[in-house]
């Protein structure tokens, strides 16, 4: 371990290890197999990077996300450590050369996806490598009960046959007891030691706040402090709109979503990491592999799809050990939205059969053929041609991708982009004079908030449907509006490539997926139920609830979450009387809204609202339009 401490100081500048890092590294240096369960921000990557550097040879790292692989490779390069990632789009020649470098070129780390591991060339070259360690990142993907199950992860145990005797380490920040048992079973490793750090984060207050007006409550939470924060939303449109709203209120905010170009992503991320912009409004993909220690708040404006993803995202707050807050803002309208978004579009076996058959027909792939053929693909045209629903079809294609039937290019989200170069008033004047564009342009403005201020990627087929315009006419309109210098646009006729990984065999390809589809859908429903249960349980400490979900018991309440705070400040008779006096005092001079009352009275908002309800029941006050309260005569 002297060597481990030396490398920790030399490359990472730390004088000591975090809890659990040292025992994990010791076990790996003793050539033992380990499954490590560590909270988000616990320093998982060091656990395999340091023993790999100490020992002669190369470490193979299996990871599910290209962005995560690239982040880790870049971080190693900055430390002068040789590492590479086998990402998508590599030619056979490039792949051949890269694998040779891993055999002969003194590389210390090779990152690859579980799907890449299936290639014969990759397997043959791994046999020739001097491998000192195999690391499986995001190991919960191995388990069918895990929140990001990837069937290709089930084949990772092949590495055991390719490199017998090489120690394995699986790492995850989100594994329930059921998932842990499944990982151990699927890795098929003898004498694997499960080492678990407590998931408890004493410095994070987990809050669930009911808020009819989420933007108003968001402003209250941020409190003009301009501290580092992440605000999670569900859509690109929302990220742009909320960042714009916050900037107008004087905050320094930026939006981050999957539609940004890589250079723009790097620029925005750097500005946030350097505190040039304190607030990042982002879709849920943001944050993986990013270690910013001073994030004071993580706020979810939309409900998370699972407690695993929520725990990971909330865990990006307070990594410096200082006090931090993780808040879910919710109201009654969120529940049907959550169910519709994640349950309504779950594909059934018949949906998968239909889309698989149609995509083969679309590219004229003959029965028994098509393996390793690649095609340009317009998702919107495909859906339009066969009258397929967009959301469910997308879910089916993602499922076929996860199951290694097809491979969708990462440009799948590339769309037609539009940038208006006139102001809103100028646009209105032009539309008044040229009314044939009215329906089409109005559909654009309604669908994409912020499109007048920013270059925006659009789904042209969706806009055509909403405006009752065919695609040919829409493209003609865009061309004419560009000539009139109203907008600039780029038309992406093909928004993806599809690579067929297996020959077309219709039912014999799809039917083996039936158990996976059934289990996937069951698991999704259970995870949504767990989220709703967490939101509704206002009696048990929120930290306790989250820890119990991951199989960890804690005797004491955290004392800082929204449940604990409410229990510590009960609505006693004395408190009710004090609030009653304050309400009557205000309403004697003027009528007031509930917001004005809660802002003026220095008691918790839920307590003020409870007293308001009691006064309404006793008919001492009445509520008029606009939620305005007044004293009854």
Automatic annotation (TrEMBL):
Q: Which EC numbers does the record give?
A: 5.6.2.4
**Is Transferase found in the keyword set?**
no
| SMART domains, per the entry | DEXDc (SM00487), HELICc (SM00490)
Q: Which UniProt keywords apply?
A: ATP-binding, DNA-binding, Helicase, Hydrolase, Isomerase, Metal-binding, Nucleotide-binding
Name the top EC class.
Answer: isomerase
Species annotation? Salegentibacter holothuriorum
Q: Which Pfam families match?
A: DEAD, Helicase_C, RecQ_Zn_bind
Question: What is the protein's name according to its record?
Answer: ATP-dependent DNA helicase RecQ
Task: Show the PANTHER family listed in the entry.
Answer: ATP-DEPENDENT DNA HELICASE Q1 (PTHR13710:SF105), DNA HELICASE RECQ FAMILY MEMBER (PTHR13710)
Domain (Helicase ATP-binding): residue spans on this chain: 25-193
Q: Where is the Helicase C-terminal domain?
A: 217-360
SUPFAM superfamilies listed in its UniProt record: P-loop containing nucleoside triphosphate hydrolases (SSF52540)
What the entry lists under InterPro entries is as follows:
DEAD/DEAH_box_helicase_dom, DNA_helicase_ATP-dep_RecQ, Helicase_ATP-bd, Helicase_C-like, P-loop_NTPase, RecQ_Zn-bd, WH-like_DNA-bd_sf
Q: Does the keyword Nucleotide-binding apply?
A: yes
GO MF annotation terms:
3'-5' DNA helicase activity; ATP binding; DNA binding; four-way junction helicase activity; hydrolase activity; metal ion binding
- Catalytic reactions of this protein: Couples ATP hydrolysis with the unwinding of duplex DNA by translocating in the 3'-5' direction
What family classification does the UniProt entry report for this protein? Answer: Belongs to the helicase family. RecQ subfamily.
Please provide the Gene Ontology terms (biological process) for this protein.
DNA recombination; DNA repair
Record's NCBIfam families?
recQ_fam
Write down any Gene Ontology CC term.
replisome
């Amino acid at each position: 371990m002297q060597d481990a401490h030396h490398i920790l100081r030399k490359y990472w500048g730390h004088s000591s290890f975090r809890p659990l890092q040292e025992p994990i590294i010791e076990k790996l240096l003793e050539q033992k197999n380990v499954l490590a369960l560590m909270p988000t921000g616990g320093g998982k990557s060091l656990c395999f990077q340091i023993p790999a550097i100490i020992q002669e040879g190369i470490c193979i790292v299996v990871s599910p996300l290209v962005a995560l692989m690239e982040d880790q490779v870049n971080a190693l390069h900055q430390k002068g450590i040789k590492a590479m990632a086998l990402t998508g789009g590599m030619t056979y020649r490039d792949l051949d050369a890269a694998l040779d470098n891993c055999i002969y070129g003194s590389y210390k780390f090779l990152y690859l996806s579980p799907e890449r591991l299936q290639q014969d060339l990759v397997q043959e070259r791994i046999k020739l490598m001097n491998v000192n360690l195999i690391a499986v990142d995001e190991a919960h993907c191995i388990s069918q009960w895990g929140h990001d199950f990837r069937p290709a992860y089930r084949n990772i145990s092949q590495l055991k046959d390719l490199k017998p005797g090489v120690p394995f380490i699986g790492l995850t920040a989100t594994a329930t007891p059921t998932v842990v048992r499944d990982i151990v079973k699927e890795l098929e490793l003898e004498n694997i030691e499960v080492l678990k750090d407590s998931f408890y984060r004493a410095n994070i207050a987990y809050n669930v706040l009911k808020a009819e007006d989420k933007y108003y409550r968001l402003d209250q939470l941020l409190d003009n402090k301009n501290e580092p924060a992440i605000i999670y939303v569900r859509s690109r449109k929302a990220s742009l709109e909320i960042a714009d709203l916050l900037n107008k209120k004087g905050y320094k905010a930026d939006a981050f979503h999957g539609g940004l170009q890589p250079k723009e992503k790097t620029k925005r991320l750097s500005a946030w990491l350097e505190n040039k912009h304190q607030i990042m409004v982002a879709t849920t993909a943001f944050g993986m592999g990013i270690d910013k220690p001073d994030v004071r708040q993580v706020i979810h404006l939309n409900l998370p799809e699972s407690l695993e993803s929520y725990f990971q995202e909330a865990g990006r707050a307070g990594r410096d050990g200082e006090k931090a807050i993780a808040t879910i803002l919710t109201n009654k309208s969120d529940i049907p939205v959550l169910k519709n978004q994640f349950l309504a579009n779950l594909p059934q076996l018949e949906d998968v059969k239909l889309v698989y058959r149609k995509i083969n027909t679309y590219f004229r792939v003959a029965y028994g053929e098509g393996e390793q053929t690649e095609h340009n693909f317009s998702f919107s045209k495909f859906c339009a041609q066969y009258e397929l629903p967009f959301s469910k079809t997308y879910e089916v294609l993602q499922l076929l991708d996860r199951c290694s039937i097809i491979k969708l290019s990462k440009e799948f989200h590339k769309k037609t982009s539009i940038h208006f170069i006139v102001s809103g008033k100028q646009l209105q004047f032009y539309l008044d004079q040229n009314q044939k564009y009215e329906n089409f342009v109005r559909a654009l403005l309604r669908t994409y908030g912020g499109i007048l201020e920013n270059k925006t990627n659009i789904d042209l087929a969706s806009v055509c449907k909403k405006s009752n315009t065919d695609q040919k006419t829409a493209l003609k309109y865009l061309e004419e509006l560009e000539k009139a210098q109203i907008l600039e646009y780029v038309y992406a006729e093909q928004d993806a490539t599809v690579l067929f990984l297996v020959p077309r065999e219709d039912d014999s390809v799809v039917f083996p997926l039936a158990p996976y589809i059934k289990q996937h859908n069951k698991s999704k429903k259970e995870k949504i139920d767990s989220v709703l249960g967490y939101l509704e349980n206002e009696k048990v400490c929120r930290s306790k609830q989250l820890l119990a979900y991951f199989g960890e018991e804690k005797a004491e309440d955290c004392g800082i979450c929204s449940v604990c705070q409410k229990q510590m400040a009960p609505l006693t008779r004395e408190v009710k009387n004090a609030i009653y006096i304050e309400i009557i005092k205000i309403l004697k001079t003027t009528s007031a809204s509930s917001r004005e009352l809660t802002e003026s009275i220095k008691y918790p908002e839920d307590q003020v609202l409870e007293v308001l309800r009691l006064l309404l029941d006793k008919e001492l006050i009445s509520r008029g339009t606009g939620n305005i309260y007044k004293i009854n005569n």
